[in-house]
Design brief:
The protein is of the alpha+beta class. The protein has two helices and three strands, in the order E-E-H-E-H. The protein has one domain. Helix content is 26%, strand content 31%. A hairpin with an 8-residue loop joins strand 1 and strand 2.
């Protein structure tokens, strides 16, 4: 999968949020890629994480790891 994310700080109306975009077939190693991507935001205040998936499927086991 291709995994990218963006951080949006809090506004008067919305909490600080990270949006994660995941696209492509799920393959072994994607859960580690997701962990590393989320780690980029470790220093930020984050109250919400949104995930946008665009995937035809792939590895069931890796998909379960992604969910964990």
């Amino acid at each position: 999968m291709e995994i990218a994310s963006e951080y949006k700080p809090a506004t008067n109306l919305l909490p600080p949020i990270v949006t994660v975009h995941l696209s492509g077939e799920i393959v072994p190693g994607d859960s580690e890629k997701l962990r590393l991507e989320l780690g980029k935001h470790a220093g930020n205040e984050v109250l919400e994480i949104d995930f946008n998936f665009n995937s035809p499927g792939g590895s069931l086991i890796e998909g379960i790891r992604l969910a964990d």
